[in-house]
Specification:
This protein is mainly alpha-helical. The chain is 45% helix and 5% strand. The chain has 14 helices and 5 strands. Strand 4 and strand 5 form a beta hairpin. It starts with 7 loop residues before the first strand and ends in a 16-residue tail after the last helix. The model has no long low-confidence stretch (mean pLDDT 85).
């Protein structure tokens, strides 16, 4: 019976404008989505999709739109990055039609819309996660009927398979080079860049938290650093190690401009003085000095120090809950991402394949 059914109306409603007076038509966005889907999943050419579009629209007016008001809930499946993600695929499909093809006018019109977008990564383009998110958000609805239906439907939708990437962590040799350079008197780094990298290396703080460190965050009397994490808004207190305290003290006393009212510790070197906008430059100076990570695609960033601290603690058999507290994770499960890089303990779980007839050359 209808009373026991929960009706959901799903539609792609574009919310982007080209300028103050020109909006992207929902019809055009849906057509571009359909061209990619038909070609990828059904083997239908773009010409045929464009030719059949008028018939599709008539079917919508007759079989879909008249019933949208009867739905219990509405779900907008459009993603704001959708056209950027589809652009490289659509350009490949539509460009050959801009000549003398019967549908050249439609192809040119769609390509003109895509000119307003940068090319995105279509591999991150997924409706599956958006649909799960919709039901997940409504699974706590105050209406028990809606809540129960969403929980039931959510259980029927399979979870997205998570693909773990191999992150280019700092190797032991790299960290030794960086540490020696930071502690060397001949490195000629600014005291600011040196202090930033030492904090990241020895405390594993996020770059956003280092950038937001204030003068009153340092507890000189009790040797602690207290802050509210930018990412999680959770308070965090970490020990002020001597090497970290000395680096901060040297910067404040010898290099940081005096008589300024900015509460943050790390500020721009040139006037007008203000809180630093980003810290990537500080690490890049150190990596360039050490001759590290110079190849195209090599991973850089202060977050690598956070990974290094976590993996070092894991290698020394520090329990995961303790590591989670040190890194300031709001949930212990956040630390699980670092377990895949704990090669020392992962090797202990590896299977012995010495009994299998595999030539050594195959493993090299």
């Amino acid at each position: 019976p209808r009373s026991s059914k929960f009706h959901i109306y799903i539609s792609a409603l574009t919310q982007l404008n080209l300028d103050c007076s020109s909006r992207i038509k929902t019809t055009d966005a849906r057509l571009m989505r359909r061209i990619v889907r038909d070609n990828r999943d059904r083997g239908i050419s773009p010409e045929r999709t464009l030719d059949q579009w008028a018939s599709v629209r008539r079917g919508e007016d007759r079989n879909i739109f008249p019933f949208q008001e009867n739905a219990n809930a509405m779900f907008n499946s459009h993603l704001f990055y959708e056209l950027a993600a589809l652009k490289p695929l659509l350009e490949r499909l539509l460009t050959p039609l801009t000549g003398n093809a019967p549908c050249s006018a439609e192809a040119v019109s769609l390509l003109n819309i895509l000119d307003f977008f940068e090319k995105g990564n279509h591999r991150s383009f997924t409706y599956h996660q958006s649909i799960r998110s919709f039901f997940h958000e409504n699974s706590s609805n105050k209406n028990p009927k809606i809540c129960g239906q969403c929980v039931r439907i959510l259980e029927l939708i399979p979870k997205t398979k998570q693909i773990k990437k191999n992150i280019q962590y700092f190797t032991i040799e790299e960290t030794v080079k960086i540490r020696d350079a930071l502690l060397s008197a001949n490195s000629q780094f600014t005291l600011r860049d040196r202090a930033i990298c030492i904090i990241a290396m020895y405390l594993g703080l996020r770059s956003s938290d280092i950038r937001n460190l204030r003068l009153d965050s340092i507890g000189w009397s009790n040797n602690t650093i207290s802050l509210v994490q930018h990412k999680t808004s959770v308070p965090l207190r970490v020990p002020l190690l001597p090497i970290v305290g000395n680096a901060i003290y040297d910067y404040i006393r010898k290099e940081r401009p005096k008589e300024i009212s900015i509460p943050e510790i790390f500020i721009c070197r040139k006037q007008p003085y203000m809180k630093m906008g980003g810290l990537a430059y500080s690490l890049n100076v150190v990596l360039d000095f050490c001759g590290l990570r110079k190849q195209p695609g090599d991973r850089r960033g202060l977050h690598l120090f956070r990974h290094h601290l976590a993996t070092s603690l894991l290698a020394n058999n520090v329990p995961v809950p303790v590591i989670s507290n040190i890194l300031g994770h709001s949930q212990p499960s956040s630390t699980q991402a670092y377990l895949s890089s704990d090669l020392l303990h992962l090797k202990e779980l590896a299977l012995d394949i010495s009994e299998f007839p595999i030539q050594k050359e195959a493993l090299q």
